[in-house]
Amino acid sequence: MSTVTLLYKHAFVDSRPPVVVPARPTEDQLRLWLVDYLARLANVHPADIEMHELFASYGLDSISAARLVGELESWLKVEIPATLAWDYPTVDEAARFLAPRTKPR
I want to staple 25 with a disulfide (CB 3.0 to 4.6 A). Which of 29, 43, 79, 82 is the partner? Predict the structure, then answer.
């Protein structure tokens, strides 16, 4: 199985290494990536990220939401709506939305 190491395009205070996930992730692997992304953004431990808490609670604003979409598009090689963080505003909702779009065609 092919994997991708995700390197964020913007600096995070956190010095943990980025998560490694498959190029075509499952819903659970998408959750893991989203949790890691938010934890780095909010400078908190991933265990502090709640699956049903709004992205905005962790400091995701319009600029960081656009970065999130850009990084997901680069990784997943699929088009993602720019409004992802507002239409699917939690880790659980976003992962559920993204998972079927990552399957090979």
Answer: 29
Query: What spatial distance separates the first Cα and last Cα of the chain, rounded to whole Å?
Result: 17
Domains and CATH numbers, the chain: 22-102 (1.10.1200.10)
- pTM score of the predicted model: 0.78
User: What is the chain's pLDDT, residue by residue, as a tens digit (105 residues)?
Assistant: 333 334 444 444 455 555 556 668 899 999 999 999 999 999 999 999 999 999 999 999 999 999 999 999 998 989 999 999 999 999 999 999 999 988 654
16 burial class (0-12, 13-18, 19+ CB within 10 angstroms)?
A: exposed
Tokens 């997943």 sit at which residue?
76
Residues 6+ apart with CB under 8 A from 11: none
